[in-house]
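Subject: design request, 246 residues
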């Protein structure tokens, strides 16, 4: 059973999605979370990073909407099929998250690209920082490694629960920037969820005005969480509105 160590009901901080805005985020530090408890949190819009579980609770803004993809009904668009084809030669291996020099250097190369193209702040380059960020022990934590031959070119961190897969983080080598590996990684995760008999892939928060999250709407059909249900409220996921495919 999960143990609550710290709860911050509405931490004010700079919004990471929309410039010039402040956000209010509900944080919980939890340990001993079971896969079943993790799934209940995902169903209610919570995200996990390390030992921290969080979701936005902004009073005057509802731009952050939790999005999930029903695996059985998913149909890739033409552009997604092209991304899959460009990356079809990759080998994908699944394991528990691990910290080593190969992954650290790949992550740093990817992050430096983001610093140059999107103005991100530099990140700590120590192995200890990487391990604390991506490799905290958790029963749901999985790592999807993408190999071109023997070369590691991408790493996806996901959580696996009894009925779902949840994307946590993905980074890749800058050499693959023009080959849509980010899009293909979601397709690989959907395929992996289907192979494992999981019903949904959770993609986190979608903010239409934020380039880093708006892409999630392209994975259709998808469902959006209504409101911010508490532990005693049955979550309502709204079926997708039909859209014109490209």
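Subject: RE: design request

Done. Sequence follows.
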């Amino acid at each position: 059973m999960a143990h609550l160590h710290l709860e911050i009901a509405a931490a004010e901080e700079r919004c990471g999605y929309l410039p010039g805005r402040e956000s209010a985020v509900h944080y919980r530090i939890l340990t001993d979370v079971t896969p079943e408890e993790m799934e209940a949190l995902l169903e209610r819009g919570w995200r996990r990073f390390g030992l921290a579980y969080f979701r936005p609770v902004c009073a005057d803004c509802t731009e952050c909407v939790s999005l999930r993809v029903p695996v059985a009904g998913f149909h890739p668009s033409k552009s997604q099929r092209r991304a899959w084809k460009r990356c079809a030669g990759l080998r994908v291996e699944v394991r528990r998250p691990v910290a080593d020099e190969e992954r650290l250097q790949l992550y740093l190369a990817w992050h430096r690209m983001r610093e140059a193209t999107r103005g991100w702040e530099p990140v700590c380059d120590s192995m200890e920082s990487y391990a604390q960020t991506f490799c905290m022990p958790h029963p749901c934590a999985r790592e999807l490694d993408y190999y071109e031959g023997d070369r590691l070119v991408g790493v996806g961190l996901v959580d696996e629960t009894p009925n779902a897969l949840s994307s946590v983080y993905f980074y890749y080598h800058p050499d693959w920037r023009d080959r849509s590996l980010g899009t293909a990684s979601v397709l690989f995760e959907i395929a992996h969820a289907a192979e494992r008999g999981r019903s949904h892939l959770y993609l986190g928060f979608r903010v239409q005005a934020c380039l880093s999250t708006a892409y999630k709407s392209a994975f259709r059909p998808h469902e959006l969480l209504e409101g911010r249900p508490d532990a005693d409220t049955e979550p309502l996921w709204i079926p997708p509105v039909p859209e014109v495919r490209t």
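The first helix runs from residue 35 to 43.
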